[in-house]
Amino acid sequence: MELSQYYRKKKLKETEIAQLKSFAETRVRYLEKYLRRINPKKILELGCGEGSLAYEVKAITDPQVYGLDISSSSIKLAKKKGIIARKADLNKGIPFKDNVFDLVFSNQVIEHIYNTDVFLKESFRVLKKGGYFIVITPNISFWLNRLIFPFGIYPIFFEVSLYNKTLGAGFLKKFMFEKDAVGHIRVFNLSSLIDMLKLYKFKIEKIEGIPFSFQMPKFLGFFYSILDWIFSKKPSFARDIMIIAKK
């Protein structure tokens, strides 16, 4: 299967849509303070999916919210939520003119892009001067990967298959309830993401670590959540990284 076909053909189940809505409600809490401070009038979400996060963002300051995604079925759902959504392959560019948006953001998307140079260069291009770029992505150097890698466990977030993300996970397989791959291609750590943003002329304004709980047995989940919250205070060890940058 070609990678582009993987994304285009992937259709969301009702349970997945409900999970995405819940995730968006959680994730927007980290964006809200910046949205209120920036008060953007025109926003673009890269990889908007079915529009749950864009919808939550729109509810905060009521801007014009645009979205791009490669999946036609997801675009239809996003439009129903009031998002000005259109289909696009972000590996090839962003189909808008220069200097259009006050804010461009992406959540859990850049790791799915093979041409991250185009992704960032184009994001910079469509931003107005003084506009903001917010990117959130998993951190390959997060605390758990640092613990398991010396034991020969394949790093979490990397995937060797388009069908099964547990390959190479060793003893962790029994704790991984979801086996379907999500299509991760390039996974960053903090220093590599900063370097990429600087390469394309972004100015780093703020860096935050974001905790994120895996689905796991209740007893283990409790201790994992505590550790993840503690390590999130140091972004280079956090499960997810959020960087706010400026043009």
Automatic annotation (TrEMBL):
<feature type="domain" description="Methyltransferase type 11">
    <location>
        <begin position="44"/>
        <end position="135"/>
    </location>
</feature>
<keyword id="KW-0808">Transferase</keyword>
<dbReference type="InterPro" id="IPR013216">
    <property type="entry name" value="Methyltransf_11"/>
</dbReference>
<dbReference type="InterPro" id="IPR050447">
    <property type="entry name" value="Erg6_SMT_methyltransf"/>
</dbReference>
<dbReference type="InterPro" id="IPR029063">
    <property type="entry name" value="SAM-dependent_MTases_sf"/>
</dbReference>
<dbReference type="Pfam" id="PF08241">
    <property type="entry name" value="Methyltransf_11"/>
</dbReference>
<protein>
    <recommendedName>
        <fullName>Methyltransferase type 11 domain-containing protein</fullName>
    </recommendedName>
</protein>
<dbReference type="GO" id="GO:0008757">
    <property type="term" value="F:S-adenosylmethionine-dependent methyltransferase activity"/>
</dbReference>
